[in-house]
Design goal:
Elements: H1 3-21, H2 27-40, E1 45-55, E2 58-70, E3 74-79, H3 86-99, E4 103-108, E5 118-122
Parallel strand pairs: 3-4
Antiparallel strand pairs: 1-2, 2-3, 4-5
Helix pairs in contact: 1-2
Length: about 120
């Protein structure tokens, strides 16, 4: 399964979570519900993955923590905020670059219509 096919399944799972829970819940609740739905689809899901940060060839504990990595192909950054800011997109792009993963989904569940809160971010390796 490639990134696009996988993102289709991820978005379907996110839509199900949003239909069930609605807006206004904590990010951690959405994240855990999404993990539950993705695992029901038999997808491999890593949660709260620490990414290394290297500075002058030294590994530093910088505290980069990715919400979800699915099938080692797609990073999901879960948000529940009033408005997405440019820093949220930059954060996801940084995670994509540090992990050498091509596709990321920034999903803000705090929207009336979830499709308005889903954004694809591509790392042009």
């Amino acid at each position: 399964m490639n990134e696009n096919e996988l993102s289709y399944q991820i978005i379907g799972a996110a839509l199900k979570v949003h239909r069930t829970v609605g807006p206004g819940v904590l990010e951690s609740a959405y994240e855990n519900a999404l993990v539950f739905e993705l695992k029901k689809l038999n997808l491999s899901v890593e949660q709260q993955v620490t990414l290394p940060f290297y500075y002058e060839d030294v590994k530093l504990e910088a505290g980069y923590r990715v919400d979800l990595i699915v099938n080692k192909l797609v990073i999901i950054e879960v948000k529940s905020v009033e408005n997405l800011l440019p820093v949220h997109f930059a954060q996801l792009l940084t995670y994509l670059r540090l992990s050498d993963i091509k596709l990321g989904l920034l999903i803000n569940f705090n929207t009336v219509i979830l499709k308005d809160g889903i954004h694809r971010v591509v790392n042009n390796l």
